[in-house]
Amino acid sequence: MPMNALSTDLYQLTMMAGYFHRQALDVRATFELSVRRLPPHRSFLVAAGLEQALSYLEQLHFSADEIAWLQDLPAFAHVPPPFFDYLRSFRFSGDVWGMPEGTPLFPMEPMLRVSAPLAEAQLVETALLAIINFQTTVASKAVRIVRAAAGRSVMEFGARRAHGLDAALLAARASYLAGCDATSFVEAGREFGIPLIGTMGHSWILAAPTELDGFTSYARLFGDRTVLLLDTFDVDAATQTIVDSQLRPQGVRIDSGEDLAASARAVRDRLDRAGLTSTRIIVSGDLDERKIADLVAARAPIDTFAVGTALVTSEDAPALGGIYKLVEMEDEGVIRRVMKRSKGKNTWPGRKQVWRVSIGGRAARDVIAFDDEPAPAEASPLLQPVMHHGARTTAAPSLENSKRYCRRMTDALPHALLTLERSADYPVQPSEALEATIR
Amino acid sequence: MPMNALSTDLYQLTMMAGYFHRQALDVRATFELSVRRLPPHRSFLVAAGLEQALSYLEQLHFSADEIAWLQDLPAFAHVPPPFFDYLRSFRFSGDVWGMPEGTPLFPMEPMLRVSAPLAEAQLVETALLAIINFQTTVASKAVRIVRAAAGRSVMEFGARRAHGLDAALLAARASYLAGCDATSFVEAGREFGIPLIGTMGHSWILAAPTELDGFTSYARLFGDRTVLLLDTFDVDAATQTIVDSQLRPQGVRIDSGEDLAASARAVRDRLDRAGLTSTRIIVSGDLDERKIADLVAARAPIDTFAVGTALVTSEDAPALGGIYKLVEMEDEGVIRRVMKRSKGKNTWPGRKQVWRVSIGGRAARDVIAFDDEPAPAEASPLLQPVMHHGARTTAAPSLENSKRYCRRMTDALPHALLTLERSADYPVQPSEALEATIR
Predict the structure, then answer these.
(1) Which of residues 284-313 of A touch B (CB under 8 A)?
(2) A84 — contact with chain B (CB < 8 Å)?
(3) Is the pTM higher than 0.95?
(4) Residue ranges of chain A with pLDDT lower than 50?
């Protein structure tokens, strides 16, 4: 991931220069990252990207080259040299609270809270939003797809349709976090320890003298991990070729066809009659949560869904609209809560905590309160301290632990939130003190 | 951009092992990258990403760490050691033809053609698709937005909503290539020389003692490059504050409001009456080509549109569905053209060229022909040789030149293709020889 200090919007740097010039470097600010509205169809979001956000903050600095380049920009023509000296020693020194990755969350809830000298907190806005918006978008899509699969296995196969290779890597991570079982993207296996899965491409079959030869030579090399592709020419004929050949592949994949349920049934039947009852059927090809739900409802004998485009681009809602807003300032010990009052774009003031109130082990409502208010009854705080004075306060949880946490927290949501169409709004309330301040 | 050799799908590596094992390393293959269908509303696409694709191919290699890690993967448990020795000396040695960046193109037309030893051509599929799919998606969206603006300036402001920071960088590049005038993303200025633009954030105003103080202190530092943000509290009041303050900002920005046209008119009127006739009005806030077309049709006095989410995620069509398919094999001097015949997913065989036939300086139709066929009359070839034996054959064109080329080639399309709704299909025909082979 390109994580240099220039991966930001120009106005963050000009505002920094402004704060420096205004001698406002000692002013501390708190910004909160949240989402104003749920994307279409979704009833909740799944927080993701905190780990990469913290890595970005930890290593943030300006290189000598970057500073020299900035100094030559026309925009900085009138900015006096001391500002660039300040950049030379710049490090992020703030405190950060965040929702653990995998937390289901709702509009208006801060999922990240940054308290730092104003210029530092400002600079990091663009990168924090880009990092967290994207992974949260994909995790929130993945959880829908995994739920639709109703216990069948889901694999992420989307690298080629992701928004570049870096997006492919992070999409694989967010998908796994939110419940997928594996990825096809090798770098995600190496970087994050995500289980890898692979089959074969149509080109393998096309490049072989015959389809049978393509199947047998692959099986010789990959043994009991072999997954054979059925639809290069004709699915039924390819299945019969496998049966006749005495191969016993771990799986077969169907990547096209107008009626995948019927196709899977015909393949299952042919395999079963030949005694290949443990050969799994993998289906791929422009799948999404709705097509998967239909295949599950039709009781199609599919063991694994491999999902690409719809998952890694969150195709029906590819952007989240997360925002990062100033909510509090502290200058010479005086704390001032601030809010933006534009119509339809208002924010809630003050440094806040989100409480999830549970009844009988199930989430009942969330309360957004000032961070110094006492805990509501039966409530757990969702924001946790993760960085103090620019250093992490705890080791990052393993991706496996985050995945389990996501599953547990999602399972604890009201059932009405777990449908593919939004059928209920989860109650999120400001505390009485927050509500009084907003008014 | 993470461009290591493991940025690929697992099956590319298992197929490589298969080709090695099958002693098929001397078999040369040609793959072509194309798109089967236009995304909704679009009448054409704009090729982009070739430059990053070639950089990827040039530097592609396996590090010792990567090879050791691969060798330990369960998938490779039965693959004999010589394959890993082969990876140690692996470099991409193929020939590549590509459409220059900025070329308008259509379904079924190869925009990239890779001829290389089978295992090499196979490995690079995932990365080439991820790189080219994404930038082509954004360029194809950007050209719509720029056309809708009808000569008014368009700025790319979307980094925070891009699919990560790497996507932000490449989206800025593709947007500029396809006609945007500048970006807010600083790294894109440094990496690609794209003009930068910045304004101020709402936080700057919220952090100031008063809105007036926020305006004046910024103007003192940034002089005639100052752009002031009007909608932190109330647009009209902020405009009056500027007028009363005797500031003469280069521009003002309106970032929210239910009726941007009315808002811009009121601001323009107030500025003009105070003699601020050269202060430009910039509008931002969830704009897309349709909203821009409406504002232009309403003759709203807007000088510059700043576009974010819709542009960098290509929100209404965030994935392209590009494919990379084997079309030809050459083994011991024997050439074999191949095609996949799956229903709805067929490909056209053989190594091909795309010819654009022009009549009176305007594109009339494209012809897809085998690469050894003679040129049709009045036709120019769209695929150019860009890499030979793994090395670039020409210096990359400057981004400025690609931008001008894009403009010229787009201007030469039939007018009916330049509308926001698809109203006409551009004729793309296979040559007689190609058609005969397909049959």
Answers:
(1) 309, 313
(2) no
(3) yes
(4) none
